[in-house]
Amino acid sequence: MTNTSALHSIPVLTDAECARVRLAVLALRPHWTKRIPSLPFYTLGTVSYIDAVGDEPPYATLVPQGNRVLRLHFGWLYERLLVLLSQALGRPAVFAETTDGPLGLPGFHIHLSDPAFESDIAPVHFDLQYRLHDWRGLSIDRDHPISFTLAIALPQHGGGLRTWDVSLTERRTRADESPEELAQGREAVFHAYRCGHLALHSGHLMHQIAPGIDLQPQDERITLQGHGVYADGLWRLYW
């Protein structure tokens, strides 16, 4: 993957299979973790950008139980994901392990309806989660990571991703400015998600969860999220 504004769409699930995954995610609510105290935003699984930052509790202690739950209920989906991403990327895809053990499997973002999600509250960012893990013993390509989102359920008026044509190189040369400041004056491109289709892009593409539109009380935004790095002939996927 290159640092362009392109997203690649890969069909993964039928409507019936999306409904099956949605029901499974909702049934696993006791395993959800609330991530914003004042808003109904949750995750299912172990998340590098949150759980690998700080020391309490250590990321490595959260992964085994999180992965067990995900594999038990979504093993068939992970098998399909590996096959389709291997085909799309032209090299075999596997779930990542480091010297500290397995990393978290791709997991779920869950946004329940709240008017706050119609606002521009999601951070503008690059996906640099690979920096949080110890890849000793592997020769990883840090310049061309991937990120992907598989929409499972979307609000009535849809959902998607905003992107800006800002490279990580430019970010490094303007380190005194935040991504939000870099986005000012640049045209944002909206990429609409489609349930059952995986949106694949470079992790070094500056992006943001697009705000919701006229959210209804019953709306849900459930997405499977993941990242990958290429190392020693394999795409290594994690969250």
Task: Describe this entry's structure for a reader.
This protein is α+β, with helices and mostly antiparallel strands. 25% of the residues lie in helices and 30% in strands. It has 5 helices and 14 strands. It has helices spanning 15-27, 48-51, 59-89, 168-173, 179-183, and strands at residues 8-11, 33-34, 41-44, 93-95, 97-98, 101-102, 107-112, 140-153, 160-163, 189-192, 197-202, 207-209, 220-231, 234-238. The strands form 3 sheets. Strands 1, 2, 3, 4, 7, 8, 11, 13 and 14 form a 9-stranded mixed sheet that branches. Strands 10-9-12 form a 3-stranded antiparallel sheet, with no helix packed on it. Strands 5-6 form a two-stranded antiparallel ribbon. Strand 2 and strand 3 form a beta hairpin. The protein is globular and about 50 Å long. It starts with 7 loop residues before the first strand and ends with a strand.
Q: Which labels suit this protein?
A:
single chain; 239 residues; alpha+beta; nine-stranded mixed sheet; three-stranded antiparallel sheet; globular; disordered N terminus
